[in-house]
Input
Amino acid sequence: METQRFWSPTREILVLYFSNLEKFLFSEAIAVVKSLTDASPDDAVWALLPSLQLLAAAEALYYNLYFLRMQEGAKVSQLYDIVTGMLNKVTNDLEAQLKSFPSSKSPNVARRDSRTPEDAQTHLSLAFYSQLVKQLLLLVVMRKRHIVVYQSLSNITLLKDFDSDAAKLKSTYLSAPDTITHPFLIQIRQNLLYEVLLLEKTILCESALSQCDAQNSVFYFEQVQADLHAMDAKFRFSQAHQESEDETAASATAKFASLPLANLFFRLRDVFREKLLLYFGSDSDARIMSALVNFNPRETWYHTRVARFVSETSCLHVIVLLDPTKTSIKKQGSGLSAYPSLFSYPSIIPPREHWPNLISLIQDHDDVLSRDDFQYPVHYFDTKVTTSYFLRRMQQGVILVAIFPDQRDPLEEGVVQFFAEISSFLRLQTAFSATSVTK
Output
């Protein structure tokens, strides 16, 4: 009996293509498509080959975070657009071919058996690939939506709408299990869901931190850690299963860990941990203390940077203040105590004698402090006490303060650079820019 086209060698090679894609082996996936030179032009999969090759290239750029680069950002979305156009054409062609086959419901067909076995098998094959192409289109739509979220997260503003980004992700994990069901795409769908759930928790954690919401910050930080652990365990299990069948198999776990996308999530996790220490390190809440018990604040990036700044500039004091007027948490205390110190260096006891000046400066310059386009700290020199103050809002509820015991230039290079570095760190820009992009 002649081998049925539905179970042809071409289909088996496609299984290998998608297997490579789910393991992030993009070059291997492209090579598999290029090897299909013996496929018949009238085979249902023939028209798919160019779009599959471009899809693998687009996925490689996606996982390597090329869309975060200034020049390449638009190119990644454009590549997905090209893939979308090609897949739409394939879909239309397959649908047209499917309509050309008589179905059992056709008035011209008395019963299903009137179709030849070859026709029935060809119809089944076309339907199989038509479903595949339609679901690949859904995958591309989700990828483009996520690119927008990543780009937004890499450029956090003071009035960042975190809820909007979370809503974009929610539509993916609610619809993907029901809409992406093709056997070729099951594992790719799982990879997608792992990533989306982790990205959502990342957004919610950053949202809580920007509001100085201790309870939700710790809750979502623990969720981020748990999701990272689950993702790592997933790929380790997948790799162990693969190597039990083929000792020469490439390490999917190692491949994933080396991707900038995976590296980004680990960097963000580390930044969240430091922000928890910075904002809530002195909190006596049991859950917060439990989450931070194994971490020493003096070993953090921000502590090292602040210590160096104080040493190099003879700064009298660096303070991180909570501005209760910009957060959704319940206001604690009144008057001067309504603006608590979250961090103080070199002394852990903040210089309360400066609080009247600081609060007045925050209230008088709120319009400037709340502008994202204002790149320099607010400067004020008090002639009565011969003290210079520099202030800049880092996030909605967080203000960084530097106090000097003498008069300073409002644009002093070392001071401006210090504020810019702390701002980039707290707004996650450092984590995004430090994630290397591989070829």
